[in-house]
Amino acid sequence: MTVPQIAHPEVSVVIPIYNEQAGLAALFARLYPALDQLGTSYEIIFVNDGSRDNSVSILAEQFRKRPDVTRVVLFNGNYGQHMAILAGFEQARGDIMITLDADLQNPPEEIGNLVAKMREGYDYVGSIRRKRQDVAWRTYASKAMNRLRERITNIKITDQGNMLRAYGRNVIDLVNQCAEVNTFVPALAYRFARNPTEIVVEHEERAAGESKYSLYSLIRLNFDLVTGFSLIPLQFYSMLGMAMSFVSALLVLVLLARRLFLGAEAEGVFTLFAITFFFMGVILFGIGLLGEYVGRIFQQVRARPRYVVQTVLQQKEDLQSPAPSGAEKRRVGRPHE
Ligand code: UDP
Ligand code: MG
Fold first, then answer.
1. All residues with CB under 5 Å from ion ligand 2
2. How far is the CA of 281 from the centre of ligand 1 (A)?
3. Nearest 5°: phi and psi at 4?
4. Which of 264, 274, 284, 325 has the fewest Cβ atoms nearer than 10 Å?
5. Which stretch of 102-106, 177-181, 238-242, 257-261 has the lowest confidence by average pLDDT?
């Protein structure tokens, strides 16, 4: 069934693309039928995050095939998945915003379930992967981070790594007002939701190509999440510092007493080394952690554009319809290298 498309569709789907040429055809083959089947008006916004492969020409070709429901935002460089999603949100006009990955790990057929849940009156529908299809170390590391985030923030997301989510227009208007340089979209949006819920979804193995996240970029992303939504790590260090000062003061007293009553102590040198190195590690980590916060403050105050949109491929009619509220102000930041 084809539904006449209107300037303000019910559903906007935002998909970030970074070097996904190998899998795009398969994505289109499942995504468009899944959305046509919903029987509602929709638009798909692909945001090309500075791909260096053929993704752009494949996206342009797809835009020519389905210009009524397709728009393509082209960045001039690689700014990261979350910036790409934010750029998509700025362009999106729907009442229900869906995000998903381009690699088919999030089955497009689940979009219908998200939309159905949103129509029940929720303004944030998260999703929990029934069985995650990723390499083991990532699954475990991600679970551990999920638990840590659960403890140090007041964001309640069961499965934070999954991008297949739906957001209401009220939530996205607020997200669009934020000027955060380093952020984590599902957590930021959660902050603004009045009535969030979650559903269980399927998860598949990457259809083609490789993960675009290196260990380094994963660590950095997790720091974005932690520093962006919690000050507890800093407070933990203050507490640890106080506890250590107290314990070492006791140790001084004990050693002093020992010196006075038992004489000089010469053994235990290597134990002392071990303890010293351990605490050096703790201190270095503490300084690094502080740096993670300070560096982000620095990026924020420089207030450079968060990303640069080179071109938007869209129909003329789309161009004329007004952008959604609060779309102008914000953009500060730096590209991911
Ligand atoms: N992505 C992006 N910019 C980046 C890295 C990734 O736009 O710098 C996109 C990528 O094309 C995909 C989504 O973000 O659509 C998730 O990436 P990926 O599947 O590689 O991550 P993983 O599933 O391994 O966490
Ligand atoms: Mg993936």
1. 101, 103, 105
2. 32
3. -60, 135
4. 264
5. 257-261
Identify the weakest region by mean pLDDT among 84-88, 125-129, 227-231, 330-334. Answer: 330-334
What percent of the chain lies above the pLDDT cut of 90?
Answer: 79
Tokens matching residue 82: 């979350």
CA–CA gap between residue 300 and residue 216 (Å, rounded): 21
pLDDT at 334: 46
- In tens, the pLDDT along 283-316 reads 999 999 999 999 999 999 999 999 999 999 998 7
CA 245 to each of CA 222, 237, 250, 283: distance values in angstroms, whole numbers, following the listed order: 30, 12, 9, 13
Which of 262, 311, 315, 290 is closest to 75 using CA atoms?
311
Whether 18 lines ligand 1, by a CB cut-off of 6 Å, is yes
Atom of ligand 1 at shortest range from CA of 84? 7
Report the C-alpha gap between 252 and 249 in whole angstroms.
5
User: Which ligand number lies closest to the CA of residue 84?
Assistant: 1
Give the atom of ligand 1 at the shortest distance from the alpha carbon of 19.
Answer: 11
The pTM score is 0.88
